Hints:
Layout: E1 6-11, E2 14-19, H1 30-44, E3 51-55, E4 60-62, H2 75-81, H3 84-91, E5 97-101, E6 104-106, H4 108-115, E7 118-122, E8 126-128, H5 142-150, H6 152-161, E9 164-166, H7 167-173, E10 178-180, H8 185-197, H9 201-213, H10 219-232, H11 237-247
Parallel strand pairs: 2-3, 3-5, 4-6, 5-7, 6-8, 7-10
Antiparallel strand pairs: 1-2, 8-9
Helix pairs in contact: 1-3, 5-6, 9-10
Amino acid sequence: MSYQNLLVMREDPVAIVQLNRPKVLNALNLALMQELVDALQHLDQDEKIRCLILTGDEKAFAAGADIREMADAGPIEMLQRNTIPLWDRVQAVSKPTIAAVSGYALGGGCELALLCDIIVASETARFAQPEINIGVIPGAGGTQRLARTLGKHKAMEFILTGRTMLAQEALDAGLACRVVPPEACLDEARKLAVEICQRSPLAVKLAKEAILKAFEGSLREGLDFERKCFYLMFGSEDQKEGMRAFLEKRQAEFKGR
Length: 257
């Protein structure tokens, strides 16, 4: 898989997708987003890959959208560009996604990290939604996902001021799940990915879908979906293998069937 704005590295069953526009701190232009969607969709369909890591470099995960592409645009032009659905296709990836964040995760960069299922942050990570400072608001889900992640009042303060949240605060607020030294960030994400890959791929897929339901509907709808997924797993080979392995006191060998 060869791209102009990405580096894709396979470490089966884990794949690492690195944003690669270092001269502009990995600013998210249309070309990068199109390549990112293409790469993630191909890896999502690859049976040898069970978990995906999305990362940038030491200076920046992504320092936001490429403002040069939109500074002079009007509303009809923005609508016709139709870039926002690309973000929906990132979230539609069925396999677990881990964001390994060092440096800046600003605006669209913060929103891209939020699209991932887990965020591992380095001590240098800096999260912000600074759109308010340039006369707009987050447009790729920031207001909605941050409100669900941080709660109403914290999200209001964060977005309406455009201030920067450091790594430890992100951890305390539930935005990041781990904070590690910068040199250990990608390795920590790898370790987490490998741990997830040792579980049943079917159970992981359904668990991810069930958790995402908690953000999209009522508690009753989420509980009904969870229950159906729970019952469905009893028709899988992974469920039989997992429970037999537990009773036999051995390591389970999951096949994703």
